[in-house]
Every structure is written in C-alpha cells, then in structure tokens.
Design goal:
Blueprint (H helix, E strand, L loop, with lengths): L2 H10 L3 E6 L5 H16 L3 E5 L17 E2 L8 E5 L9 H6 L5 E6 L10 E4 L6 H11 L6 H14 L10 H12 L4 H9 L4 H12 L2 E2 L5 E6 L1 H7 L11 H4 L6 E9 L2 E8 L5 H6 L4 E2 L3 E6 L3 H18 L3
Parallel strand pairs: 1-2, 1-4, 2-3, 4-5, 5-6, 8-9
Antiparallel strand pairs: 7-8, 9-10, 10-12, 11-12
Bound molecules: manganese (II) ion.
C-alpha cells in the first residue's frame, strides 16, 4: 500500500478522527501523534489524541502535549495507530475498540509489525514513525509549521539516538534539515531532552553501571535493575530509557541488554545490537519484537532466571553467526 492511499482515505474520511500510540510512549510515539494531530486540526478535522499513559515530563515542552488524553471522549469511525507493531501495543485503548467495526489505519516502522489495520503502511527503512508522518502531512497538503516541525524533529532525533543509530538515513537528515528550516528552537529541544536530567536519575545510572556484566565471549554485555531499586527511583525512569545503548557501546560487544524488573518476577528486557545480530528475531523468541538493532520483550520469571535464559539465547545467536 502506498502512503498516498492512506492520505486519500483520510481526505475522504469523516472529519472525526482519533490518533493513538503505544503505552509507555517515547519521543517518536508522542512527537508523531502530536504532529499528525496538529496537522489534521489545521485541516479542519475534529481530532482526539490518545495515549493510555501519561506523557513523560521531558516531552511536556512539545506543542499540543496537553491535548493528549488517556481515553476516548467517543469512538470515531477511523482510528490512526502510530508507531505500534501490534494492535495490543496501545494497551487499554486496544481493548476499548476490539470487536467494534472501525477503520484502523496502521502507520509504523517496526519490522515486527503484524499488519493489524484495515489500511497498513509499514516502512521498516524509516528511522522513526515521525519520518512517515512527515511524508503523510505533505501528502495531505498541510503546511508544516513550526509547531508540527518541533514535534516531528523530536520524534526523529529521539528514535535515531540523535542520528547515531543504523536506522539513520539520507532521508532522515533531509527531513531533519527541512524541519530545522522551519525555525524550530533546537536549544529548547536540546535542553528538555538531554540537559534537564534530574540528579536522582544520574545517580540511578551510576547504580546501573555498577551492575554491568560481560559474558565470557565478551560480545554480550548487560545491566540490571532489580524491582526494589526500580520502585525506589520511580519517576526517574523516563531519563534512563536510552541506557540500554551503554553496554552495547563497549568495544567488541555486539549485543547490549537491559533487564528491568518492573514488577516482582516480571522483567522487561531491552535488546540492542551493534551491526550483525538481528535482535528483533532474538526478542521474538521470548514473545517480543521491534527492529533489527533495537527490540524488547517482557518475561514473567525471577530476574536471575530471565538473565540466564536471555543471555544463553543471545550467545547461541553469536555462535551461529560464527563470531
Ligand atoms: Mn518508533
């Protein structure tokens, strides 16, 4: 399916639309939702922007961030899902609409996408869903103003790790350059995203680094956050989402892992790979998924057991690759 088909569908659709994204929203989820929401609003649509979870404080500077609600006012006929690999990624929102006969538009860049929509546009080469939304807004003939540009730039800069990850392409930079040309305030974006980390969060990072381990092959490194510490640090978490990239950055390491015990015996695992291993496949072995170089899953088992299982499976992948 062409992105133009999605644009045409939206042009012909009812003027009542909802835009939703995944739970525990990141910069791409929030930035894409807001950018598309603001664009559609400018085009005269009646828009509901919905996320099951509250918006992390670091994204509160984004124009329209106060427009995102945690539930529907009413359920419109067309619902646009952004940055969700599966319909269940939207959490409670998915539950509310399940069984209803609605038009679901699925716009995403995860390789693990299940094509759950009535209309699906999945571009796994896009560095962020924000890149796709940029193209969609253009196809909708909506001018990209400074507010929309700020949201899209945030989506892209966060999902590409500030243009460092392998998902960064020529298109990523071309779009970013165009967004900068709209006059967005890079200093503000920088200050909110990377230069306002609470001291408590930096201290948590110190604790995390203390848990660093490297396996005997020296190709797998990981950090661990047990539940007692997770609970104690509470809201500092929004600042450590990217910490999984730290073990990966070690010389010679191919796979970086982050084990976060979010409830007793319930562990969220973050996977990153440097250049060879497909961590989407690795995470899928545990019921998760994502991208080739970044993925995740949730396992219900004691922390030590999860670490053992995941590291063992990661080692098998490394050995298969003949490293
Ligand atoms: Mn994304």
């Amino acid at each position: 399916m062409d992105l133009a088909d999605i644009a045409n569908f939206i042009k012909k659709a009812d003027k009542e639309l909802a835009v939703v994204s995944h739970t525990n929203p990141d910069g791409d989820a929030i930035g894409s939702t807001l950018a598309l929401g603001l664009a559609l609003e400018n085009l005269g649509y009646n828009i509901q922007l919905i996320n099951q979870d509250n918006i992390p404080r670091i994204y509160s500077f984004l124009p329209g961030s106060d427009l995102i609600r945690t539930s529907f006012l009413y359920i419109p006929d067309t619902i646009i899902f952004l940055d969700c690999s599966d319909i269940t990624r939207a959490g409670a929102i998915s539950g509310v609409i399940s069984g209803l006969n609605k038009n679901i538009i699925n716009i995403d860049h995860h390789i693990s996408n299940t094509f759950f929509g009535t209309l699906n546009y999945v571009d796994t080469k896009a560095g962020a869903t924000g890149e796709i939304v940029y193209n969609l807004i253009k196809l909708l003939d909506c001018p990209i103003n400074i507010e929309i540009a700020t949201c899209l730039y945030t989506a892209i800069v966060t999902d590409t790790g500030s243009f460092q990850f392998e998902n960064t392409t020529e298109q990523t930079h071309t779009i970013a350059a165009d967004l900068i040309s709209k006059g967005i305030n890079l200093a503000t974006i920088r200050r909110f995203l990377w230069e306002s980390i609470p001291l408590k969060s930096v201290k948590l990072q110190r604790k995390l680094l203390d848990t660093l381990e490297v396996d005997e092959t020296k190709k797998i490194a990981w950090v661990v956050l047990p539940y007692e510490i997770y609970k104690k640090y509470g809201s500092s978490f929004e600042h450590i989402e990217g910490f999984v990239n730290f073990p990966k950055s070690i010389e010679g390491v191919e796979i970086g892992l982050f084990f976060k015990e979010i409830e007793p015996n319930k562990v969220k695992v973050g996977f990153r790979s440097k250049s060879k291993v497909d961590v989407n496949k690795l995470a899928q072995k545990f019921g998760g998924g994502g991208h080739k170089r970044a993925a995740g899953c949730i396992l219900e088992a004691p922390l030590e057991e999860v670490i053992r299982q995941v590291v063992r499976e990661a080692q098998k992948t490394i050995i298969k690759k003949g490293e």
